[in-house]
């Protein structure tokens, strides 16, 4: 998936080429616009998770468990396919998520930052990365907001995202 700014550039390139066969256009776009690699880091930069491209979903969860886990009004997780996790480095401590069999949260053994987690029962084949650990002001906005029944009344909604009062499984 291309970054939004790359899509604009790709459209410009296609206009410049003035058409042509699909294979030529696809090859041109793919050669000029490769997926962006990103690195999520904990506060002390001991733990680093390198990913390829944009997440398949970006979820803000307001459930009481995610609020406690994050210490904030929501957990904002970037959901990546396992194949797009390029590397995970650093010393982590693993916490088994009691509500989800096989779920594990990995946090930095030094500073305690939650950096990434897996939840094979809810997200098979996926890996969640704490979006704030990318510290990127251009990171995509959430596309899904769930468990809004737990959201604080003073917390604004994420515009443009699908909102669910409870976990939708989507």
**Unreliable stretches covering 5 or more consecutive residues:** none
Which geometry do the CA atoms define? Answer: globular
Structural class: alpha+beta
What value does the average pLDDT take?
A: 82
CATH fold field value of the largest domain = Metal Binding Protein, Guanine Nucleotide Exchange Factor, Chain A
The tally of structural domains comes to: 2
Largest sheet: 8 strands, mixed
Range of strand content: 25-35%
Query: What top-tier CATH class of the largest domain fits best?
Result: Mainly Beta
Q: Within the largest sheet, what's the order of strands? A: 6-7-8-9-4-3-10-11
Number of strands: 11
Rounded to the nearest angstrom, the distance between the terminal CA atoms is: 20 Å
- Proportion in helices: 10-25%
Q: Can you count the helices? A: 3
Radius of gyration: 18 Å
Order of helices and strands: HHEEEHEEEEEEEE
Based on the coordinates given, report the CATH architecture of the largest domain. Beta Complex
Brief sketch in words of this structure:
The chain is α+β, with helices and mostly antiparallel strands and 170 residues long. It has helices at 4-17, 22-32, 64-70, and strands spanning 37-41, 48-52, 57-61, 75-81, 85-89, 92-96, 104-108, 114-118, 126-130, 144-146, 162-163.
